[in-house]
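Write out the bound-state structure for NAP.
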Amino acid sequence: MKNYDHKTIKINSGFEIPKLGMGTWQIKGSECVNSVKEAIDIGYRAIDTAQVYENEEEVGQALKECSVPREEICLTSKVWRDNLSKKEVIKTTEESLKRLKTDYIDLMLIHWPNDDYDLSATMEALAELKEENKLKEFGVSNFPTSYLEKVQNKQTNFVCDQVEYHPYLDQSPVINWLTKHDKFLIAYSPLARGKVFKDEKIKKIASKHQVDCAQVVLAWLCRQDSVVAIPKSSSREHLKSNWESQNLVLDDEDVQMIDDLQSPNGRLIDPEWAPQWD
Ligand code: NAP
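---
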């Protein structure tokens, strides 16, 4: 039983995830071990990694060396898009468990949809791993609503969709779909990979509240009921300041100003294998 002292999302199955977590894409080696330990020391209890980030070893080492018991941490990883056959999902998840030095992953996601694989078989493998207590829950990532419909039709109980979400990208179709189905959204690249720091409107709101731009954007994301945000930072100062965004309350005018920046075309991450977005 986890005992979080900060805001979380709890879904009907009883699964609970902190509203603010730490992303680890592009942090490797000792920098990764140290920043994950710093984050946990500051108060973070949700860590996001993936098979393809090649840092599961380091995340696992940080979880072993930190002062917080494993069961207090909500650990997310992702099965890469080439590993989606039933056999490979099971095999590569076992490998992730070894690298992460843990008996279970809290949340395992399908990193990207891939039409070369039978989605039913992928979901079946994840459900089996959950049955064996190797996963607490599973979900998807980079699924637009058309794919959410497909996976929902498979009658498997996935809990979330991790997608790009920040002030420049309107994700209302995905949010509405997830909310309707008692699922949550994990916002990746929540700081638009640094773009928010140059935005005059966000700077204005930040100066009004005497905070920084990251805090404004994270407060805007986390005030949304079904949204979790996972900013990446390898700097203790940034990790701490991002954590403190939880103390910031935006007023209606601030929220409206950020809402108005939203556009369906504001996507930053759009690789060749991406699906047809909403
Ligand atoms: P992001 O979190 O939007 O931005 C990270 C950048 O912002 C880094 O350069 C970081 O630099 C800087 N930063 C963070 N806090 C700051 C602060 N308070 N002040 C100034 N600069 C700050 O981008 P992201 O890494 O793309 O996304 C976050 C996480 O989402 C990833 O790490 C990964 O876990 C996940 N993700 C998932 C997918 C997917 O396909 N599912 C795709 C992309 C990302 P410093 O390190 O110097 O602070």
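---
The mean pLDDT is 96.
The chain has ten helices and ten strands.
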